[in-house]
């Protein structure tokens, strides 16, 4: 292929073919997803054939793509081996670390295990995860990046939307047939409603479910994780997003008694100081978190 950028295009193609995702390839190559997509398009235009077809959220290789991937993988392996021999051992640059602030409920239900995957991808030798329920609790003197459940703007900071949040009731399976049983939405008012706000979200849910009765018992908690814990113990019903509840629902520890949903008043954002917004590691981590957060939740 006689083209001044042919080798660069092939390197990008090989990464996308191997990981099956433009975003994941961009994180590995430390370039933007837009740049990855453009270089793949340029390669396909140069060759005059399609190398990928869309398969849900992933890219699947065509027959031509499979043939090129096989050759490219062999070629780059040989090049990398040769370069390693010529260059000799790479001197250690010392530990690579990152500190991230995360809401406790998100950390427990999802992000803690995900962080180990990012450490492998980014080559981190250590990381520090600290709890922060909202933006005001974050100590930015020691925090590189934060996941914030809130509503921007935040002066002096940059943010990227992770995911909008949709809330539905969850409870322990044993509460379904408790007395009174949960046969219709109005039955929730006979049980403890578990809140992590002033009660506004449950009020909006009751309105959406056409329930006019007022809840008889209300428990207010300082964090969502406290409310989820009470729900797991069969003490009442909490409003929780699929994003946070997916593992509990999949394991059967929580169930959804009703499908009525409301949009939360806040969303999840990746946030960093403006001065760090173009830092390659911060950009890479932000892209990775957003990519993982938008994958379908297993339920």
Quick overview of this protein structure:
With 299 residues, this protein is of the alpha/beta class. It is built from ten helices and twelve strands.
Written account of the structure:
The protein is α/β, with parallel strands linked by helices and 299 residues long. It is built from ten helices and twelve strands. The chain has helices at residues 6-19, 22-29, 33-47, 63-87, 104-122, 173-176, 200-208, 224-232, 242-251, 280-293, and strands at 52-55, 58-61, 97-102, 126-131, 145-150, 157-163, 166-170, 192-195, 217-220, 237-241, 262-263, 267-273. The strands form three sheets. The protein has a five-stranded mixed sheet with strand order 4-3-5-12-6, with helices on one face. Strands 9-8-10-7-11 form a five-stranded mixed sheet. A hairpin with a 2-residue loop joins strand 1 (52-55) and strand 2 (58-61). The longest helix has 25 residues, at 63-87. It is elongated and about 75 Å long.
Radius of gyration: 24 Å
Structural class: alpha/beta
Percent strand equals 15-25%
Mean pLDDT over all positions = 84
Termini separation comes to 46 Å
Identify the strand order in the major beta sheet: 4-3-5-12-6
- Secondary-structure element order, as H and E? HHHEEHEHEEEEHEHEHEHEEH
Described by strand count, sense and barrel closure, the largest sheet is: 5 strands, mixed
Oligomer: single chain
Uncertain stretches of 5 or more adjacent residues: 1-5, 90-95
Tell me the number of strands: 12
Query: Which word captures the global form?
Result: elongated
Helix content: 40-55%
Helical stretch count?
A: 10
